[in-house]
UniProtKB/TrEMBL annotation:
GO MF annotations in UniProt: hydrolase activity
SUPFAM superfamilies, per the entry: alpha/beta-Hydrolases (SSF53474)
Protein name: Alpha/beta hydrolase
Residue ranges of every copy of the AB hydrolase-1 domain listed in the record: 43-273
Record's keyword annotation contains Hydrolase: yes
Keyword terms: Hydrolase
Any Pfam family: Abhydrolase_1
Cited InterPro entries: AB_hydrolase, AB_hydrolase_1, AB_hydrolase_fold
Amino acid sequence: MNTSNHTPENITTTYRDAPARTVTAGGVTYAYRELGPKGGIPVVFFVHLAATLDNWDPRIIDPIAKNHHVIAFDNRGVGASTGTVPDSIEAMADDAVTFINALGFDKVDIFSFSLGGMIAQDLVVKHPELVRKLILAGTGPAGGRNIDKVAGTTYYDTLRATLTRSDPKEFLFFNRNATGKRAAKAFVKRLEERTADRDASIKVKAFQTQLKAIKKWGRATPVDLSTITQPTLIANGDNDRMVPSVLSGDLHHRIKGSELIIYPDSGHGGIFQNHDKFVPAVLEFLAH
């Protein structure tokens, strides 16, 4: 077990071994996993389109959980969480607040990726008091250019993946050059490290509803993000085909004082391809 001198033996520090838990609130039972030392402000992970608890990269979660209480959860109607997937980002944000409140937290740090980043933006605008620090990776703002095309890209790449018997994430998250293909294979392999008590896959209808919510978000009126005063770290690859990289720059421009990291020669999954560089940046960001 990966424990440091400061970590009591009974604390889980690897995502692979994090116990599956549930909490019920607002008529929904949310599935979640937690790891790392308790106490202090927890880091809550907001997951991407079509993802369940099994889609978090252990090379990102594990090092963060060495010194932080980390919590990942399934959105309503996804994986082992009950209920029906909402067809709007705003309703998903309301669910996230319900979940955080159910665990008894009044202040959290948010680590969000892709769809999770859209949910996080809505949450922080509506509930600024709940968030201390915000990480937005591979995401874009409401009304962001070409976000409404995510569905088309997703279906196209899923078909390409099916034809080659690959995981769709290999096409959606990574460049199709030698570096990207190598990174994609390594990432997909890491997601299989947990063998016991794995989550249920997302159902097709739930996935389609999430895509509908993203399309609405892409066509929505832009929100005033200048109200976000929390320290914000924005990251992406330089060639994101799902949520165009230019939108990370747009977020950086609109959220005053935010930090922006763009990784060269990488796509939507730039943070996973460059986890060895990204994790130290996250730890530094959360520490101050």
